[in-house]
Amino acid sequence: MSSSKQPPVQQLALIDCNNFYVSCERLFRPDLRNVPVVVLSNNDGCVVSRSNEAKALGVRMGQPWFECKSLVAEHGVFALSSNYALYADLSNRVMQILSEYSPRSEVYSIDECFVDLTGTPNLRELSYAMRQRVVQWTGIPVCVGIGSTKTLAKLANHVAKKHPRSQGVFNFNALTEVQKEKLMTQLPASEVWGVGRKLTKRLAEYNIHTVQDLKIAHTPTLRADFGVVIEKTQRELQEIPCVDLQEVTPDKQQIISSRSFGNMVTELPVLKDALSTFVANACAKLRAQNSQAAIIQVFLHTNRFRKDLPQYSPSLAVPLPYPTNDSLVIFRWVDALCERMYKPEYQYKKAGIMLSEISPVTHHQGDLLEEPLPAQGTLMQTLDALNKRFGRGAVKVSTQGAYSGWQMRQERRSPNYTTDWAEVPVV
Amino acid sequence: MRIDLPLPLDATTPKLWLNMCSWKVPAGFPSPAADHTQKRIDLNDHLIRNKEATFIFKVKGDSMVGAGIYEGDALVIDRSIEAKHNNIVLAVLNNEFTVKRLYKRGGVVKLVAENNLYPPIVVKSGEELSVWGVVTYNLHKLY
Q1: Taking the alpha carbons of B102, B105, B109, B112 in that order, is the dihedral positive or negative?
Q2: ipTM, 2 decimals?
Q3: pTM above 0.80, yes or no
Q4: Which chain A residues are within 8 Å of B95, Cβ to Cβ?
Q5: Catalytic member of B22, B24, B100, B110
Q6: Do the Cβ atoms of A426 and B99 come within 8 Å?
Q7: What was the pLDDT predicted at B112?
Q8: Which is more confident, A106 or B36?
Q9: DSSP state of A375
Q10: pLDDT value at residue A5
C-alpha cells in the first residue's frame, strides 16, 4: 500500500541478441546449427562472436584466431569472417520489430536495444511474446532483461542469458527486496554495466567484490576515489535512474574512417586507393546526417608489432577554406596530405582519415534576380543514390577500389544473403 | 459563410526546406490530370506483407515445376506466417534447406514435391523438420 504514493517504477527492458553474429550466419546455414562456430574480426584477426558450443570449448572473446588453431583441428570449430552487411540488415529488422512495442526506445548497439515498457499490462507475457516474435520473424534469438534503470535492465539481461530457468526473460522489478539482495550478493561486480577489468581490480582493493558490495558502498568515498560515473552506476543499482534513454542519436562530431590493411602497403597509388575508399565512406556518413566538415586529418601507420621494421606514423591535418561534404573536394585534400607524408622506404599497415569541426549544412539564401547556381550537392546525391541502389562502391571517386592489396582479409565471409541480389541463398 | 478553425500546429512535422526552382514555370493551360495524381504502384507494397520477416531465396532444381517454380526463380518467403497444411514452404530437414508443399493431416507430416520424379518425403519420428518460412510469391522471369 505504501508504494501507491510513489511514482510508478520504470519498466525498462534491455533486449540483447544472443551470440548475434553467429546467429545471423546460422540463419542461412542450418548445417551450422549444432556445430561450434566463431566469427572473426576484420582481417580475420580475433574471435568476436562465439556459439555456445565454441564457448563450452573454452574459446575466449577477443582471442586471436591463430591461438585457436589446435581447437579447430581437435573439435572442428567452424570460423567465418565478419559479414557486416548481413549483420546490419538483420539488426535493422530486429530493431524495427522491437521499436513497435513502445514509443520510447534506444538502439544501444548493433545487437542491443532499450525499450521502455512502463505501464504495459501483462509484462511477463508481453516479454515472452516479444522474444518469440523476434526469433520467428528474423531467426535471431534474444534475451529480455527488465529493471527500473538501464544498469539494472542490463544486469537482468545477464541473468536471463545465464540461467536456463528464466527461459530468456528476467524481470528484476518482480523480485522482493530479499530476493534482490540475494541475487546481487551472488553476482560479481564485474557484471555491472561499465565495470571493466581494470575497475574490477581497483574495486577489489576496496573490498567491493559483488554487485551488492557496490550497491551499498560508501558513496562519498566512491565518488572521491572513482569519480562521478561510478557514483551514477551505484545510484542506478539503487533503482534511481541516472542514465536517460537516448531516443535520438546525436549527430557525430567527428567521423573517422580507417582500416588495417590485409597486407603491408608500400606503394603510393595503393595507399591513395585505400584513402579514397575511406573518404567515400566518411563523406557518405557526413551527407547522411546532413553535415559538413571543416577540418581534414590523414594518418598513416607502419606495423607497430613488427619491431624489426622501421617505424613511421605521421599525421597531418588541414583546415578547409569552406566547410564541405563533397567527396571530390575532400579527396583532393586527402590526396595532397598523403603525398606530403608518404615515404617510400616504409611498409604501411594502417591508414585513415578523420573529419572534424562538423556543422549542419546551412541553407543558402537564394537571389531572385540572379541565375541560380548549379544545384550544389546534386552530384553527391546521385552518387549516394547509385551506391545505395547498386551496392556500396558501385560508383567511385578517382582511383577508389582500382587497386587491391590493402582490402580487409575476409577469406571466410559468407554471401550477402539479404542485401545483394546476386548473392541470395539458393535452395 | 464558413469559418476555418485554427488548427494546432503539429510539432512533430519535420522542417520542410523548399529548393529554389531552376526550371521555368509554364504559364499555359494547367494539366487537367494534376488533381488526379496518385502514387504509382509499388511492387514492394503488394509482394511483401511483412518487411521485417521477408527474405528472398533462389531456386535450384526441378522438384517444384508442377507448382510453376523453376530453377533460377526467386521466391518471396515470409517467416511470420504460421505454416498450414498445403502451403509451399521453405523447410529445414536434417539441417538442409528444401522447398516443398507441406502436408499435415492426421498426425502425418510430409514434404511433397510437385514433380512425379520425386516421391513425397515422410518425416519420421527422430528426424528434425522445421519450417523456415512460407513461400508467398514466386518471381519467374519471362523476358
Answers
A1: negative
A2: 0.78
A3: no
A4: 30-31, 33-34
A5: B100
A6: no
A7: 97
A8: A106
A9: -
A10: 56
